[in-house]
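Loading example: each entry is read as two labelled lines plus one structure line.
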Amino acid sequence: MRAVARAISLVEDEDSRAPALLKALFPHSGRAFVLGVTGPPGAGKSTLVDRLTAHLRKEGKSIGIVAVDPTSPYSGGAILGDRIRMQAHALDEGVFIRSMATRGHLGGLAAATGHVLTILSAAGKDVVLVETVGVGQDEVDIVGTADVSLVVLVPGLGDEVQALKAGIMEIADVFVVNKSDRDGADRVVAEIQSMLSMASHDGHRPEIVKTVGTADQGIDELLRAVEAFRAKAGETGLLAKKRRAHLRQQFEGTLEERLMGLVRSRVLAAGEAERLVDRLAARELDPFTAAEEVLRKMGLS
Amino acid sequence: MRAVARAISLVEDEDSRAPALLKALFPHSGRAFVLGVTGPPGAGKSTLVDRLTAHLRKEGKSIGIVAVDPTSPYSGGAILGDRIRMQAHALDEGVFIRSMATRGHLGGLAAATGHVLTILSAAGKDVVLVETVGVGQDEVDIVGTADVSLVVLVPGLGDEVQALKAGIMEIADVFVVNKSDRDGADRVVAEIQSMLSMASHDGHRPEIVKTVGTADQGIDELLRAVEAFRAKAGETGLLAKKRRAHLRQQFEGTLEERLMGLVRSRVLAAGEAERLVDRLAARELDPFTAAEEVLRKMGLS
């Protein structure tokens, strides 16, 4: 566990040793089953992840949990408080939990999360749960490339919150209506069904499972729906397609990071970037011509 | 208005004529005052933007509004519904309103929004209001580079929604506590004050203004706070610093887009990207080595 934690820290700190480590680990990765969990704020995602972990542990599976949190210097405390619930598993050697900040990843959040999945998979975790708040595009993209993506909704969210769910509907392999002991749960189910009736889903129509995370209700049904999707997606080739999309994302993120790193270190020497911005600010230069200048310096135009 | 709408469509459609157009417009841009508005879902941002627009119109200012929406094939209707409120201004020639989807911008959402600001500024708008949902990092970054950034909070949001606000606290130049006729408004003000007391703000401590958007209350006070910030930020050099940050973001976004475009068109010929992904999927190749191969082909390593 300590080695895994240190490896992830190297990635998060963008340590110069991280690429070599990830290169060495990559051939051993790709074996964990990755389950993405997303949904609007207040949907009870963390509790669901906690319950899914407990059930999967009973089956003897080793678990990795990656919680992608929107954080800032102000928020550390609040988010950590939220994670304290997970400490039941913190004493369990079969569960590895890591929170990731959404800020400060040079190659983008998706790339950084991909690297953490590589590490957890190479460490032999059977299942990796990735939890994000499904309102930012990055966060949605991350969950969208999991083997199976859960979208968690709840009764009684305001209109604008429900509109937010729009961006995440299309990535759902299984819908979860959590807090389904509340009024309006059946209306949420009906709304999802009516949306699904209008859309195409690569021949796969997502199941809708009702849960009450805090009461541990519906978790077995949810895991059965996940397994059913995985089996079917394995047969139809959809699973392979999703894994390829994730690999393409990882590759492009890495390449973008390397290219921009080269630009910063070689082409835009110290002070030169500032001089470019000076000329932009004076409106002597526009961003397109500036980009072309850099490409020319790199011998690329 | 029609020319502005067409120019924005060229940018959104990534038309090959867009770069030349933006180059030509850029020298005429940078004159509009850009006011960013962000906050969690349900904070009443659209209503506030509507009220701010009405007040600014009374002062004779011409207005551009850019609403960055999380959209998907499913959501078009819902979001459009939300925008219908703005149609009061749609009949006003002095107001230009445009919604932007958060998906499908090759150079990133921030770059695309920057281009739209260039167009609206060059078209002579006095004030451009940029509204985003402050939960995705991209959306926060966009508002963070406005001349003045408003962060809108409301009483009575759930805990997790309040945690979300964390990521946006640091970009606030002025805080708005909207729906302040509700219970708990003073508690929200006190919470913001306690957070501010712990943080540094480049010598500037954000004002907190209470509003009731739907009742048109507090809007003049809000505009006075905005103007006070702008005046002070102009003197201290903070405004110039923010504008430089925005220009740097536009330049880097453009460069990244051009570099990745070159990779796709020149280095990764048809089918070659797929073969790379094949090798990644077979674990014969890792993303870092793949990126290095591409850099070598480009003569960059």
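Chain A touches chain B through 79 residues (CB under 8 Å).
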